[in-house]
Write a structure and sequence with these properties.
about 900 residues, alpha+beta, Penicillin binding protein transpeptidase fold, Immunoglobulin-like, five-stranded mixed β-sheet, elongated, disordered N terminus, disordered C terminus, cell shape, peptidoglycan synthesis, Penicillin-binding protein 1A/1B, cell wall biogenesis/degradation, FN3_dom
């Protein structure tokens, strides 16, 4: 029974489980069907939507105009004011047919651009799928899937903007092109349209320009590979300008040819061994018919690099930043013999930018370019090492930015070496000892520059420089004074300096603002501004560079009334000079970079090639300064100024203090310098200076004129400035003292009292500073029996400090003045018997200072004066007993300072 029961139970459980499994199976199948239907529905919807979107995009596609394929459209260039400048197009072309294209060149192009060219019908689905995946992973536009057919369409009919609309139109027209033309015809179109830099279009013209070959079938494998690789980025792979990049690209093409089976691996490796330079013909300089070709050269480079279009065939409207007035003047300066000598191969390049925006206003590509079109452009191509113009970029700018150094920061200019022990010298030799950052940069001292670079550190220096567009991949200590491994261009240097003049905002220099395609589509090509440094760094460097122009190495560029900052620089040959029979200190390059709030200009003067005569003499090294002064005087009206930001504090500092101390109340003006500090780092300690005593006046004379009944007083003073005044104290026969101040060097005392002796003391004053007195006495004849009533002792000493304690018993000696016996009215403090500290002749000499200090009598002992000494009461201006002067003084009125019997 138990066994049957178990069997029945198990049968029920099994039946139940079977029903459950069937139910689950039915549910699972239903769910899968639902998902499949949903996916299919989505696919259908997506397909319908895609077709609809595609139809919407292509409805505005331009027609497949055969005339445009064969007849290229010229482009119009406009200046900054929208005025037409030039028309680009119609250049000499060498058109080739497919039968003229060697198989090797065709294979190189197909391996690089479209390996499945003969298998698709205008759109390569396999390649497109790969591009889609790359775009999903790396973002839209990361990789293109365009075939050669699509590229022909894009170069002929469309703009290069990366949008779904343009890609849809490109695919649609590519399908039509494939239906209308054969593969060989399409490849022929492509090879005749592609751009090869330097204004060269079409593979036939490129072969002639770069290799001197008019027959394409004579091209070698490495030459064909180079031509096949250049169209991806023509300017970047220009073998004349960038041989290393060109070689890398050529070798990539050779590897692709081997990969796709067009050549063997051995052939590829052999071709890679051929040096780029050995393949090239001498660079040609075609005849010019384009105005401002140095500027237009930059326009072409920017448009082709940024928009990847053909400026000579695509019918563009190109709006630029060109200032025709500035451009014409730059070309005039370069072609003039006003500043240049006739030395062989002497050349120059000039770049002028808008300081605030980075817009290129003018480019001087070289001297005597009238018959040269798109030759070597000395304004935009690397021309030499920057010399000391690099110091604000690699040394002092970073020191202020990261270390918050002030312009008063002290650096010691002394014998010094690089970290490896190699000695470093200043230009011209010698050492200046402790100097401020301002002095070191103003006079371009090399040793302080290296010490600054070391304090900042290589990494931070390079980071700062690269934010200014320098593009360094490394920096070494020699870079601190301009010994960079990679040459720089005037355009690059001008771009870096604009950030100093624009509150620390850097904008990569640009010549094109926008382009407009034939279909009305616009593309903005302006560079975007970015902050490269704090505003305090920019302003403080600018303030120091103003010192360079006003009083330093750049004085020859100074323009009165113009807010101009700048830095000079020269290079020398060093050990390389021996190769040309030159000395190590001979100079191949001279620079200046200057800027105002409106314009920035970088000027280079050097040589087109190195030779035994390629050295600048002392005058030729000054040419950039003369050019900058002339240029800025012409283009800048002087409006605007560099505004000091709140992050900067300007303070009076006592010279020579380390760390800097604030100038004190009595610090002489000649010992004060005004320096800049990052707010929060300014000094708080004040220099403890005493007032400096001024030199005394000279040649003081006092003479009585009986006919005029007046006393004439005069003196001389060699140290007089606009701030100098003279204080004249006149003591009469009653001991009353009156004071007059004047800027003149003479006064007249009218109607003096007969019989009185007048004592005159003259002081020079400049602010808080005061000289010792010069003293003279004069006796007025007559009335000698009029003896003044003596006062009580001590009446005249209120405010005297109690030094003398009362009446000076020396007045009877006044009679000796008239009789000429032993008069001791010393001038400038001298006495016949010894030093009297300048106070023996009866005038108040202490001007409110500690009283009585000038009443020294001890040195009068033994004087040849018969005891007749007229001494000055050392009282202050606050003494009692004042009375009006009698007789009156001309040139002012006196105030009684005290009386004596």
């Amino acid at each position: 029974m138990s066994g049957e029961y178990r069997s029945r139970v198990e049968r029920k459980q099994a039946a139940k489980q079977t029903k459950q499994k069937k139910a689950k199976t039915k549910k699972g199948t239903a769910w899968l069907k639902t998902v499949a239907i949903a996916i299919l529905f989505i696919i259908v919807i997506a397909a319908v939507g895609g077709v609809a979107a595609f139809a919407y995009f292509v409805k505005d596609a331009p027609p497949l105009d055969e005339a445009k394929i064969k007849d290229p459209l010229s482009s119009i260039v406009y200046d900054m004011n929208g005025k037409k400048v030039a028309e680009l197009g119609g250049y000499k072309r060498t058109y080739i047919s497919y039968k003229d294209v060697p198989k090797m060149l065709e294979d190189a192009v197909l391996a690089t651009e479209d390996a499945r060219f003969y298998e698709h019908h205008g759109i390569d689905v396999v390649r497109l799928a790969g591009a889609v995946l790359a775009n999903i992973k790396e973002g839209f536009g990361a990789e293109g899937g365009s075939t050669i057919t699509q590229q022909v369409v894009k170069m002929t009919f469309l703009s290069s903007e990366k949008t779904l609309k343009r890609k849809a139109q490109e695919a649609w027209l590519a399908l039509q092109l494939e239906q209308k033309y054969s593969k060989h015809e399409i490849l022929e179109m492509y090879l005749n349209k592609i751009y090869y830099s330097d204004g060269i279009y079409g593979v036939a013209r490129a072969a002639e320009y770069y290799f001197g070959k008019t027959d394409l079938k004579k091209l070698t494998l490495p030459e064909a590979a180079l031509l096949a690789g250049m169209p991806q980025s023509p300017n970047r792979y220009n073998p004349y300008d960038h041989p290393e990049a060109a070689k890398k690209r050529r070798d990539t093409v050779l590897s692709l040819m081997a990969k796709h089976g067009f050549i063997s691996q051995e052939e590829a490796e052999k071709a890679k061994q051929v040096p780029i330079q050995s393949m090239l013909a001498e660079r040609k300089k075609p005849q010019s018919s384009v105005p401002y070709d140095a500027f237009i050269d930059e326009v072409i480079k920017e448009v082709t690099d940024k928009a990847n279009v053909n400026v000579f065939e695509d019918g563009l409207k190109i709006y630029t930043t060109l200032d025709q007035n500035a451009q014409e003047y730059v070309e005039k300066l370069l072609d003039s013999d006003k500043y240049f000598t006739n030395k062989k191969d002497l050349q120059s390049g000039i770049a002028v930018l808008d300081t605030k925006t980075g817009a290129i206003r003018a480019l001087g590509g070289g001297r005597h370019r009238d018959h040269v079109e798109f030759g070597f452009n000395y304004a935009i191509q690397p021309v030499g090492q920057p010399g000391s113009t690099i110091k604000p970029i690699l040394d002092y700018g970073p020191a202020i930015e990261y270390l918050k150094w002030s312009t008063a920061h002290i650096l010691v200019d002394e014998p010094y070496t690089y970290s490896d022990g190699t000695p470093i010298r200043n230009a011209g030799g010698g050492y200046a000892g402790p100097v401020t950052l301002r002095y070191a940069l103003t006079w371009s001292r090399n040793i302080p520059a290296l010490k600054t670079f070391q304090a900042v550190g290589k990494e931070r220096a390079m980071e700062f420089a690269n934010r200014l567009g320098m593009g360094f991949d490394k920096v070494e200590e020699a870079y601190a004074i301009g010994g960079v491994a990679r040459y720089v261009s005037p355009l690059q240097m001008a771009g870096a300096y604009t950030a100093f003049g624009n509150n620390g905002i850097y904008t990569k220099p640009y010549a094109v603002t926008k382009i407009v395609f034939p279909d009305g589509t616009e593309m903005d090509l302006k560079s975007k501004p970015k902050r490269a440094m704090h505003d305090y760094t920019a302003y403080m460097i600018t303030d120091v560079l103003k010192s360079v122009i006003r009083s330093g190495t750049g004085q020859l560029a100074y323009v009165p009334g113009l807010e101009l900052a700048g830095k000079t620089g020269t290079t020398n040959y060093g050990e390389d000079g021996a190769k040309f029979g030159l000395q190590r200190d001979d100079v191949p390059d001279s620079w200046i970079v200057g800027y105002t709030p409106n314009y920035t200009a970088a000027i280079w003067v050097g040589f087109s090639k190195r030779s035994s005569t390629a050295k600048l003499d002392k005058y030729e090294q000054k040419i950039p300064k003369y050019l900058l002064k002339d240029l800025m005087s012409h283009i800048d009206d002087g409006r605007g100024e560099f505004q000091q930001p709140d992050s900067v504090v300007k303070l009076p500092i006592k010279k020579g203090t380390n760390p800097p101390k604030l100038a004190g109340k009595y610090t002489p003006e000649s010992e004060i310098t005004y320096e800049l500090f990052v707010r929060g780092t300014e000094p708080t300690e004040t220099a403890n200076d005493e007032p400096e005593e001024l030199p005394a006046v000279k040649g003081l004379t006092a003479m009585y004129d009986q006919a005029a009944n007046a006393i004439s007083v005069s003196w001389s003073y060699d140290e007089q400035t606009d701030e100098t005044i003279f204080e004249v104290r006149v003591k009469d026969g009653q001991g009353q003292t009156n004071t007059i101040t004047t800027k003149d060097r003479s006064i007249t005392i009218s109607n003096p009292t007969p019989g009185w002796t007048y004592t005159i003391a003259v002081y020079a004053k400049d602010g808080e500073r005061m000289s010792k007195p010069a003293i003279a006495s004069v006796h007025v004849p007559g009335g000698e029996d009029q003896t003044p009533t003596p006062q009580q002792p001590g009446d005249d000493n209120q405010g005297n400090g109690g030094q003398n304690g009362g009446t000076d018993q020396g007045n009877s000696g006044n009679n000796g003045n008239e009789n000429g016996q032993g008069n001791n009215n010393e001038q400038n403090g001298g006495s016949s018997g010894g030093q009297n500290n300048g106070n023996s002749d009866g005038a108040d000499t202490n001007n409110g200072q500690t009283d009585g200090t000038n009443n020294q009598e001890t040195n009068n002992q033994g004087s040849n004066n018969s005891g007749q000494t007229n001494r000055v009461n050392g009282g202050t201006g606050a003494s009692g007993g004042t009375s009006p002067v009698s007789p009156p003084l001309k040139n002012g009125s006196g105030v009684g300072l005290g009386t004596r019997p």
